[in-house]
Structures are given as C-alpha cells and as structure tokens.
Amino acid sequence: MNQQSNNSFHLLTVCTGNICRSPLAEALFQDAYEADPDVYVSSAGLEALVGFPMDEQAAKQLVRLGGNPDDLFAEQFEDEHARSSNLILTMSLAQRQQITRDFPRAALRTFTLAEFAEIAVAAVNESGSSLPLAGLLAYARKHRGSHKVDSSKDVQDPFRQPDPVHEATADHIHRLAQQIIHASSEAR
Question: Which domain does 177 fall in, by range?
C-alpha cells in the first residue's frame, strides 16, 4: 500500500460501518494503483465499527476477487478525511448527502461510486483516452449535474445478509471500480 505524501492524490471510499463495502473498494483501488506512489487509497465509515477487521463474508468476497483483507480495519470518517481527500466515493446517495451536509468543504469532491464511474466513462468517451484521477475529478465536478444520481444506483449494504447478497455487492463494487480504474491513467 502506498503511504500518503503531500503530493499524493488521496482517494477515499466510504460506507456505513467500514467493514464490508468501502474496504472492499479500497482494496480493489489499492491493487490497481499500487505501482503509482502518487495515489493513496483508504476507506472510512460514517458509523464505523472502529478497529474491527473486514466482515468475514465481505472478506471472503474480496479474496474471491483477488484481494487481501488482512490489513483492513474500520476507521471513523472525521474532519481530517474531509480535508485531506481529493476524491471521496460513497456507496450510497444518502452517504454522499450526509458528508456534503456535515462536511460542506468536501461537497465538490464527494460522489457516489456509481455516479463517479458513470462520469469517468463519459470523460474517456469524450476525450478518447484515459485521464489522470485529478482530470477525472475536474471533469466530474464540471459535469456532475448532467448525470442522474438516485438511490437506485446505490451499492447494497450486505451486512448481516446471506452470501449471495455479499457476492452481488462485491461484483457491483468491482464493476464500478473497474470502470474508474480503466478511465484513469495512473492504474497499472
């Protein structure tokens, strides 16, 4: 995992407890950007189960997708996250709304995972090539109003749900993360 430096682009994934969805997304992005020392990826929860490891079922899905859950522990979203993150990706519209309400300085950098993936694909289609994450963010800020955002595109919370729900959630996160990864020039 890359360590954050002052010159890093900090991508933060956010969910509720930070034990299922956001750490899975964090691990997928970390894997894609591990060769780039200028991209730092982390995750946090709005109601985090601080210090807890990944949920066992979610961890199983991460392993299925080729990731490693061993170093992922829940962390509470705090003001420092809002200040230091260049891009905040939430798993639901309600989470995006909570962050923009409670941390207004982060509003222009906060998107749902589905919203940003859709905008990233549009950016690549328009430019004809991948863009740096900062370029995708600039495009997203400029075009965010032209992309419909509603809760129907939320990543379902699989906590305390059966394995098939965890699998569907992991696949949904993986698909959206891959759209962003393929759109960004920093990915390996």
Answer: 9-183
